[in-house]
């Protein structure tokens, strides 16, 4: 359980997330994930990284129960900094990062996937941001890299999910496969990259990041500022308390 990394002679490092039951990550785990991805990229023997998860789904975002069980804002600040670090690590990793998304990918999971280089998904995968239902904001930056602008707004305001098949249609997901074939499909793409000259691939990753039209780290940080505002106003606690107590989103009714 936790964040683990394995490397092989082909130059492929696999980082696996395993936090039962739903891969909702506690604050420290986001930092651990960031460290694992950056460390892999710095290793000259690593040519490509696969980011995957065990269990029911790829990622359920931050551990809200941890946040609500902590007095003050310490856990909130740690979670926000941890998410920013993990999202940035995927983006800044010196080699391409392939994500293999199984089941659900929501909240913070969108930040990881939106900053990845290649996305593969199981045929039962769904993607979404329930942030407004939790009294928070964030990762619209990354959702906007997966769907067209107006669809991003619709999904964001309504907290609806989008399917892997829809994202494949938009071209943001490279391939959709049955869940039991997901790891093999990710491995196949990783091997195609790993056989290239890593000196060229590393420069290609840097070049593509440098010509990116969106500064994803600054953009996400702006979103986080509004999340802090909602917390200071007490709005976020109302929504998180309701979710912890009932498992459902708070409404105005």
From TrEMBL:
What general EC class does the enzyme of this chain belong to?
A: lyase
- Which Pfam family, an example, fits this chain? ECH_1
NCBIfam families per record: PRK07938.1
Tell me which InterPro entries the record gives: ClpP/crotonase-like_dom_sf (IPR029045), Enoyl-CoA_hydra/iso (IPR001753)
Put simply, this protein is called Enoyl-CoA hydratase
> What GO biological process terms are annotated to this protein in UniProt?
fatty acid beta-oxidation
Q: Which SUPFAM superfamilies match?
A: ClpP/crotonase
Matching entries from PANTHER family are given as:
(7AS)-7A-METHYL-1,5-DIOXO-2,3,5,6,7,7A-HEXAHYDRO-1H-INDENE-CARBOXYL-COA HYDROLASE, ENOYL-COA HYDRATASE-RELATED
Name the Gene3D superfamilies for this protein: 2-enoyl-CoA Hydratase, Chain A, domain 1
Q: Which UniProt keywords apply?
A: Lipid metabolism, Lyase
Task: Identify the EC number(s).
Answer: 4.2.1.17
